[in-house]
Design brief:
The structure holds two protein chains of two kinds. Chain A is mainly α. Chain A contains ten helices and no strands. Classes of the chains: A mainly alpha, B alpha/beta. Chains A and B meet through helix 2 and helix 3 of A and helix 1 and helix 2 of B.
Chain lengths: 197, 249
């Protein structure tokens, strides 16, 4: 990360904390926070849950209401974004439990797959050039939720291990193990289907 | 999508007059978990002190004479199992409670276990030092029916002549022979000689409470290899304990 982008992020985090304080006094100030994070959170919901656009929007609304209600428990030892992801993830899990079903088609975009596979050293990039994207999506789709979410957080949301630990509330060692195991499972399944050598 | 959602949320907040919940409302579960955790640590300390209470009368010096098998029998056979089981449960539940605190997931298992074990044992030793465990043990034996079936008097481990352990009060002293009243087995002749290791603290006089390690050589006759003092009076039934023969009265 360049020093310029680091400073930018730092300022944004400081700004988030100020916005949280202001939002506690007047809900209008909460809008700035929502605008800042809604796209990221919306994509996160779609990526980990496979819900339709409409359902994902409903979940996001619910997540924002929950964030607003919980503003007083925001602890600035966490980044606001990490905390927002944590609450959003809980809303997604609640929604999955309520619906008790998983839609069949993966919602990952092609560039998402590229990001996941580029991060692995054992999966060839040429895979993505072939007409196998649907199969790859299916493999990811079949991955258990606990592996899926950490892989998405790491490679698509580009969160570091500490942030992932705070979002999913699991120890760092467990996060590392889940990411490694998830990637291994992806590679093994891809090999089985002859997507890679 | 972007503007729509934030507008919708703001409208909903205003329409339904939603306000941020108070800190207490949001954190009461965390406070409760901390209270439970503190309670479990205190209970663990209590159980550990009761377990420690059973240990100090076994000194390692005895190991040299007993050899491994008999020493293991002494330790394992008379271990305060009840308190060890309760202690184990307190530690496990304490660990789980710590994990459930707001930031409990951040710490390594080993660190959490280390902190809890350290806290429990430190407080346990403190309670032992303050003789809180002895008073509690005596209280329990008076107030809880059948308590001694689950938590035998700690001196009882020394009353097993078949295994080579005999304890009791000296009621008569002759040359190289003691008559010892044992609370469980009646009166015994305890023989000793120059080879017998007699602890310098032991004066071999009447009313003294001793433990002897050696061998049963006949009916109510015991050959001692070691004679030591029993470290504290709480080891045998006290007056009014409702057990044994009010040995120390």
């Amino acid at each position: 990360m360049s020093s310029k982008s680091f400073m930018l992020k730092y300022r944004q985090e400081k700004n988030d904390v100020k916005l949280v304080d202001l939002a506690k006094k007047d809900p209008e100030n909460f809008e700035a926070l929502m605008v800042r994070y809604q796209n990221r959170l919306f994509h996160f919901i779609k990526r980990i849950s496979f819900f339709s656009k409409e359902d994902a929007e409903d979940i996001l609304q619910e997540a924002f209401i929950k964030i607003y209600k919980n503003l007083n428990s925001f602890d600035d030892s966490l980044k606001f974004s990490t905390w927002a992801y944590q609450i959003t993830r809980n809303c997604v899990i609640d929604a999955i439990r309520k619906k008790q079903s998983r839609p069949q088609k993966a919602r990952l975009e092609n560039e998402d797959l590229a990001k996941i596979f580029k991060s692995g050293t054992d999966i060839e990039n040429e895979t993505l050039a072939k007409d196998t994207l649907n199969k790859v999506k299916e493999i990811i789709d079949k991955l258990p939720f606990k592996y899926r979410e950490v892989i998405i957080l790491r490679f698509l949301e580009e969160k570091n291990y500490n942030e992932i630990m705070d979002i999913v509330k699991k120890p760092k060692g467990t996060i590392a193990a889940l990411i490694n195991r998830g990637r291994k499972m992806l590679a093994e399944e891809a090999k089985k289907q002859h997507l890679i050598r | 999508m972007a503007q729509d959602i934030s507008k919708k949320v703001i409208n909903k907040i205003k329409k339904e007059k939603i306000v941020p919940s108070s800190k207490f409302q949001l954190n009461w579960k965390n406070y409760l978990i901390w209270i439970i955790l503190i309670f479990l640590v205190l209970m663990g300390a209590l159980f550990s002190s009761l377990a420690i209470f059973n240990i100090p009368d076994v000194d390692l010096e005895i190991y040299r004479y007993l050899k491994l098998r008999r020493f293991a029998w002494l330790i394992i056979g008379s271990a305060p199992l009840l308190w060890i089981i309760f202690l184990f449960f307190s530690l496990t539940l304490g660990f789980l409670a710590f994990r459930k605190t707001k930031r409990g997931y951040r710490y390594k298992t080993l660190l959490i276990v280390g902190i809890i074990v350290f806290a429990v044992l430190s407080l346990g030793f403190l309670a032992h030092w303050a003789k809180f465990n002895q008073r509690l043990d005596e209280n329990f034996s008076r107030r809880i029916p059948h308590y001694r079936q689950f938590a035998p008097q700690r001196g009882m481990r020394w009353i097993n002549p078949e295994e080579g352990f005999l304890a009791g009060k000296i009621i008569a002293v002759k040359s190289e022979e003691l008559t010892v009243a044992s609370p469980k087995n009646g009166n015994w002749i305890v023989k000793y000689n120059k080879k017998t290791l007699v602890d310098p603290e032991v004066k071999l006089e009447q009313e003294e409470i001793i433990k002897a390690i050696g061998e049963k050589i006949g009916d109510f006759i015991f050959q001692a290899q070691i004679i030591k003092k029993l470290p504290c009076p709480g080891m045998f039934p006290q007056k009014g304990s409702g057990n044994q023969n009010n040995f120390l009265k």
